[in-house]
Each structure stands twice: as structure tokens, then as C-alpha cells.
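Would you mind writing out a protein's amino acid sequence and the numbers that encode its backbone to help me picture the idea?
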Amino acid sequence: MLAHHTVTGCNMRVGDMCGTGTISGPTENSYGSLLELTWRGEKPLQLSSGETRTFLQDGDTLTIKGYCQGDGYRIGFGEVTGKILPAK
């Protein structure tokens, strides 16, 4: 992913976040991406603040965290948080 971005001229810098590899299930309650959860932007997602979103917006804060687990173990990478800034 990093090579794909940089070879096309994207300026990656320290602190930039990249997220990829959505693992989704077959039912609506197991979707793993905002695009799936909002059904390509046709079904707004209700946020705890009362707002709705179909896509990320400038000023949104995004936290990515993840783990995998098996019988008797769990491996994770903690969490990373960033704020969506407007394009310059």
C-alpha cells in the first residue's frame, strides 16, 4: 500500500494513517467498512452523538484498532487515532 501511494506521487509523512484489509462477514451486523455499513452511502450510519454519516468528513476523528485471536491467545497492535483534515 505504501509503495502504491508513493509511486503515484502521494507524499506520505510521519503520522499518516493507512487502513486496509477489511474482513467482513455475510450479514449486515458483520460488515467491516464504512462503505459496507452505509451500503455505498445509501443508508446513513447513526453516530452516538446523534449525527449521521455516510462517508468520512473533514474534521472527523478516526480511531483504528485491531487484533486477532485463537485458542488461548490474542495479538493486537493497540490503536491509532487521527483527524481528517481538509485538502489543501
About this structure: The two ends are 23 Å apart (CA to CA).
